[in-house]
Amino acid sequence: MGWLSRSHSKEKTSEKKIPEVQEVERKVRIPEGLWIKCHLCRQIVYRKEVEKAGKVCPKCNYHFPITIDERIAQLADPDSFVEFAGNIEPLDPLKFTDSMRYPERVRLAQKKTGLTEALRIGVCRINGRMAVLGVFSFGFMGGSMGSVVGEKVVRAAERALELKIPLILVTASGGARMQEGIFSLMQMARTSAAISRLHENAVPFFSVLTDPTFGGVSASFAMLGDVILAEPRSLIGFAGPRVIEQTIKQQLPEGFQRAEFLLSHGFLDMVVERGKLRETLSLLICHFRQSGTSRCHSEGDPEGEAPVRD
Amino acid sequence: METHSKTEKTGNPIWENVVIARAQDRPTALDYTQRLFTNFVELHGDRGFRDDPSIVSGIAGFEDRTVAVIGHQKGKSFKDRVSRNFGMPHPEGYRKALRIMRLAERFKMPIVTFIDTPGAFPGIEAEERGQIEAVARNIMEMFQIKVPIISFVIGEGGSGGALAIGVGDRVYMLENSIYSVISPEACAAILWEDAGRAPEAAQSLNITASDLLRLKIVDGMVEEPPGGVQKDFSVVVSRIKLILSRDFEILSRKSVEELLSERYEKFRKMGPYKEGTTKTT
Q1: Which residue among B183, B211, B273 sits closest to A89, beta carbon to beta carbon?
Q2: CATH of the domain spanning B18-261
Q3: Residue A37 domain-assigned?
Q4: B273–A91: do the CB atoms touch at under 8 Å?
Q5: SS3 A276
Q6: Confidence of residue A306 (pLDDT cuts 50, 70, 90)
Q7: Minimum mean pLDDT among A31-35, B20-24, B236-240: which range?
Q8: pLDDT of residue B4
Q9: Which of B274, B270, B272, B271 minimizes the C-alpha distance to A88?
């Protein structure tokens, strides 16, 4: 379906001149320099100031894309993230070939990103409290969900269930991975089934949607959080804006499919700025824990549990 | 989203398959309902917003049971097809389907679903009313429904919009039906910026009933007469009757725990990957 046109045509379209901000945002690479230009407000801003704010523009609050490592560093306590299932890699069940064989495309993405797949999962602490954390990389084939990403979401959920700790998934994805055909569609079923088990066992799942989250990811586990959060201005939807425009032959309204749009239509619990995300998640983890006797503080938590190694 | 495909012959057998799967004279969910069941009572509405005619639902008799029936409905005449939005549901269609599934669960009726959609509708209102939430919720809650679910892909199985009524204990495909994560046209548009190369994309995507049977995504294939089901609907109807009769019997003997854990495991296995040096399928 159409969401894929966003993710996979990204590199091609970025060559062309497209006036829409959302298209330009995708390829933001903060250059090595003292100053950078914000892609939303187009102002020249001091790079260090952007970095200090977690890659957020100090002038207009535009959230630059960040890597998995940066995200983990922002959310998890220092050195607390212990990755698991890091060695699962895709096969090529359909022998899918377009201009390039699928395994080559995967290798290229691995080389470019230094990742094995579009999702990393691990156990970590957030303000001393344990959680299973999974973070998507949009840079790895558009964050698309094939069998490996699906498997990792399932394993993350199963680990959360086993340890009775919350699951947090931070998404950035164009949707299903076309090159795995029907298998990628079935990941919507597998991942949703795994979340269903968390629901039944009252293990909290906090879904954090970032720019962009579409298709097979948004229409499955990502919308099934007990609490659903999103970063400001994130594009979130079922079909990509271009597909909708082509279908209805109409221009889309201002702000369509932005996080704020979803919030006002009742599909998100909150829009949270990047700088407040850790604190918000920490508070949620505290509120949702089973034996909540002491009051929750957003800052720090003295009574942490023992560390768990994989 | 391309709802109408080119019908010219391409010499590509898979593309001819796609054309048959989408053919306007192919029987619809309501046709199957009329022929397979007795005393069908159609039930309408999601109780929240409106009745979405892209999905039909209701209760009916099959042998000595009452079953719940849910299906995408593409429509017959042009006017009918337009009013049914060519079988592309809005969120309220999926919410209606879920309401009927919960109703079936309460009254212990097994569920039969007929899949035939280009996909969930990509439009402004669909997004505003939460297409992603509706599809996601249906897929998840189908894993919780405590009665047997049997699904048939009768024409086009278009991505998440198909799966949203397709999490079955048994899933079958009609011989000429297709089931895919993306339409061949959209896939070709992405790969080659040329929707005209859809036949090639169709080949790469492995979307036919025999492909999906080989990939162990579906449990069986219902044979069609040469030229397609419309050439001899009765023979296909009787084949489906046999399947339903047998599966209701098998599935109704299972405890709820067995049924749900087998449903979970069935889908849990779908997706090959390699781990370290071992391969899993």
Answers
A1: B273
A2: 3.90.226.10
A3: no
A4: yes
A5: helix
A6: very low
A7: A31-35
A8: 44
A9: B274
Range of the domain at A134: 65-289
**Residue A9 placed within a domain:** no
Consecutive H or E run containing B73: none
Calculate helix-pair angle for B198-205, B13-22, nearest 10 degrees. Answer: 90
* Cα–Cα distance measured from residue B14 to residue B34, given in angstroms and rounded to the nearest whole number: 30
Report the domain count for chain A: 1
Would you say residue B278 has pLDDT above 60? no
In tens, the pLDDT along A102-133 reads 999 999 999 999 999 999 999 999 999 999 99
What is the 8-class DSSP label of residue B208? B
What ipTM did this prediction achieve? 0.94
Q: Are B211 and B28 in contact (CB under 8 A)?
A: no
Dist. CA A168–CA A133, nearest whole Å: 5
Give the CATH number for residue A157.
3.90.226.10
Prediction pTM value: 0.90
Asked if B281 and B272 touch (Cβ cutoff 8 Å), the reply is yes
A176 forms beta bridges with A145
Kindly provide the b/e burial profile for residues B262-271, where b requires at least 16 CB atoms within 10 angstroms of the residue's own CB: ebbebbbebb
Inspect the interface and report whether the beta carbons of A248 and B159 lie closer than 8 Å: no
pLDDT digits (tens, 9 = 90+) for B247-277: 999 999 999 999 999 999 999 999 999 998 6
Could you tell me if residue A222 is inside a domain?
A: yes
CB contact under 8 A, B124 and A220: no
Domain parsing of chain B, residue ranges: 18-261
Type of residue found at B116: D
Asked if A109 contacts A142 with a C-beta cutoff of 8 angstroms, the reply is: no
CA-based nearest residue to B164, from A95, A157, A238, A26: A238
Q: How confident is the model at residue B193 (pLDDT cuts 50, 70, 90)?
A: confident
The shortest CB-CB distance from A1 to any of B119, B136, B206 is to B119
Nearest chain B residue to A153 by CA: give it. B268
- Do strands B65-72 and B111-117 pair parallel, antiparallel, or not at all (unpaired)? parallel
Is A170 inside any structural domain?
Answer: yes
Task: Report the SS3 class of residue B145.
Answer: coil
Contact criterion met (CB below 8 Å) for B257 and B264: no
- Give the span between the Cα atoms of A153 and A306, in whole angstroms: 24
Find out whether A109 and A7 touch, Cβ atoms under 8 Å: no
